[in-house]
Write a structure and sequence with these properties.
The complex is a heterodimer of chains A (459) and B (456).
Chain A (H helix, E strand, L loop, with lengths): L1 H30 L9 H37 L3 H4 L3 H15 L10 H39 L6 H41 L2 H6 L3 E2 L12 E2 L2 H32 L2 H16 L2 H22 L9 H26 L2 H9 L4 H30 L2 H6 L17 H8 L9 H35 L1
Chain B lengths: L1 H4 L2 H5 L4 H46 L4 E10 L19 H16 L3 H12 L7 H4 L7 H11 L7 E7 L2 H7 L16 H13 L2 E5 L2 H4 L13 H32 L4 H15 L2 H15 L7 H26 L2 H9 L4 H29 L3 H5 L20 H9 L4 H33 L4
Antiparallel strand pairs in B: 1-2, 1-3
The chains are: A mainly alpha (459), B mainly alpha (456).
Chain lengths: 459, 456
Amino acid sequence: MSNLSLIVVLLVLLALGYQFGTRRSRSIATVNPNLRMHSRPHHYGMMVGLWAVLPAFFILLLWLWLSPAVINAMMISALPTDISAQSTEQLRVVTQRINNLANNFGVVADAAPWELQAAEHFRQLKANSALVLTALIAVIAAVGMLFGLLKITPALKARHQVERVVKSLLVLCSTVAILTTIGIVLSMVGETLKFFSYIPPTEFFFGTTWNPRFSTVGVGEQGSFGLVPLLAGTMMISAIAMLVAIPLGLMVAVYLAEYAPYRLRNIAKPAIEVLAGIPTIVYGFFALVTVGPFLRDLGNTFGLTISATSALTAGVVMGIMIIPFISSLSDDIITQVPKTMRDGSLGLGATKSETIIKVVLPAALPGIVGAVLLAASRAIGETMIVVLAAGNSPALTANPFEAVSTVTVTIVNQLTGDNDFSSPQSLVAFALGLTLFVITLLLNVMALVIVRKYREQYE
Amino acid sequence: MTIIAENPIKSVAAPSQVQQKVIASLRKRHRKEKLFRSLGLSAVLISLALVALLFINIFAKGIPAFWQSAITLDIYFDPKIINVPQKPVQQADESDNDFRQRDLAWQNQVGFVNFNRLIADSLQKVLPDAAKHRRDLGRVVTSGERFALRDMVVADPSVIGQTHTLHLLTDANIDVWLKGNIDRSLPDNQQQLSPKMREWVQSLSEQGIIQNRFSLALFMNADSRSSLASAGLAGAFMGSFYMMLVVIVLAVPMGVAAAIYLEEFAPRNRLTDLVEVNINNLAAVPSIVFGLLGASVLIGWFNLPMSAPIVGGLVLSLMTLPTVIIATRSTLKAIPPSIRQAALGLGASKMQAIFHHVLPLAIPGILTGAILGVAQALGETAPLLLIGMKSFVASVPASPFDQATALPVQIYLWQGNELRNFFEARTSAAIIVLLMMMISLNGMAIWLRKKYEKRW
């Protein structure tokens, strides 16, 4: 919390620096009325504020990053020699205990006197560190502000300096998106490689049984990590979803773009798009308590056994979810097809439906394919509907009426929420995640390229 | 077909063979046209019906859960049972800390009072044959209500010795029975209530002592496992609130800044092309992948706390960032270049032109995009499951660093509760709350767009 208050203090300093800088630039301007100041007063103010805050902030970040390790090392060096000589793994346990003691959390068993002593030392070090940090930041901020104030002269290009800082801030923000991608790829590749040190990749990619067992069972029973049944489940559910969504979504798009009167279109389009905004957990619940039992009863009347949680249930509900993706993307694309093409066809005597089927849709096809690919990638990565409604049974089956499991469901099941990523049972989640990432990435890139190419064609 | 019937050719002479062929094929083509058209209309109607079905289904299930059966009892705060000393008063020479210690010790003592006996005693007054069925007697009022009584005593010790008329929540199973969510004709061994209990509940509800009352517990309490009837959404709501706060503080300014750079400053080259493709991709990456990122990087490397809204907020921020960037960029793109040129022509720097002239015009569009991004983050579940937010938390988080769940995760947890016939309704109620929040966010976005939309 003290770090937060430090940041608040820095913000206050920013405001103060701004005030001082503005005032000083004004007084300089009044003292030398025949000199033109290069920038507006608020630029000087901003510059002083930045001089006060930026170096201090930088030091703060550096301190927060480095100080825990330094404090730890100092604490360990003060421990009795027989303990500090232990292996790093044991030392980690020791420091964890001392950390807990210092924070007044409970520890297992009674604390030894040297542990209490170390905890006291640790607390002392931390308090000292906070004190030194505060003092350091105060000094640096004061020096920075003074430096900034002294720098103010009529010739100083304060605006350029401020704008350069703002621009680099903008650049920094736009790199976050790239850093996110890099972070995703690096972290997942790292953990996946760790996983492949337990299980060879061929076994993972081509294995046909999924039975990871529990990590507590022991090393003798390794469990089998075959991707194929999960991927098959994912594909089956996505295929069912697309079977539901493509005809419906496409027909909706065609009707709304070509036939619907203006008023119907104005009501129906946003109403259908509501479907896209509903959280997926709601669809999952809907599938579980309504669609699943309905399909099971429907199957019973036709003499079919459909389990309430099955690939069919999840697929149908996911299809409903995807309708607006396909309909609104296709709608955009269909309306982009030039009117001259329709007029040409109608002028030759074709009916409207013939025009749509033989002229408009073929012209819009690349865009529609892009929309379908995007929707498919959405279906493959969808999690909550399948977690609730697909039944979670990782068996290789071609029967859509049975329960299946998917890649996403398995990720949720394997990462049960502890941060110990050392067993293949939890590491496999990252291998699955990477597989998912690559598949959706390919679909997305393909779709984007197709859509972009198409746009250029008619623009 | 009417058009053909009025065809003048027909009235003059019998149609030739070719004409007959044409007429037949026209008939067929027009039939196809009609079929295609009705297919389109039915697709629209089916989709609208699905939207309606979803909402009607959830609302029909969830709305009854906003009212919950409660029993009206005259609770006598018997001084013999609440046998605690006077509430400590701060002495003049006592430090705040010492007083707090003493006060906590007193509260602790109050905590040991058998409040269940107070409830049981007042129940005996309305149930004449209660003494013989002690086990059932303890199960009429849900177990969490004794804490409500304790809190009353702690807040105001003068209630001791007085009688207060209170509405206490009944056990979840009684609620289920009264609402008819369980088949009443099932044999005894499949009923959740004993025969005696059912008799009591029947007579109490006929006397009006047990009534359906608006369930404040649903909104005021955190989740609970020991006292299912008093499980509420407050904890999850605060968890979601903190996460949205993080998203608003991080994702929105960062996204806007990134969009300004990419749209206004960035040179057109390979690198910015790559950034653009990357952002479009990031917007379509499955949300669960962001959860994996959070689990391995934020929790694994940076050692941030598990299940904390701060981590959830960071993950959701990364997820929303592309949405905000894309929305802001398209808004900036729509602002005519003449605005920039006018500012530049009058001697403004590029930065001034953008921050003083372009950005103010773009604010409605940016806000719309930001609100939609926040709404998307609010409904997201999957990544939160991976960073430990599916653990059971029975308290309302006081800061973004405490353990918490979120509204959608609470829905996930409740739908899995074993007491299905109680929690199905309660889950639907939670969904209604979530949907209402999302609808109001979306409504706000639409209103903003309608109000400030400008056509250049």
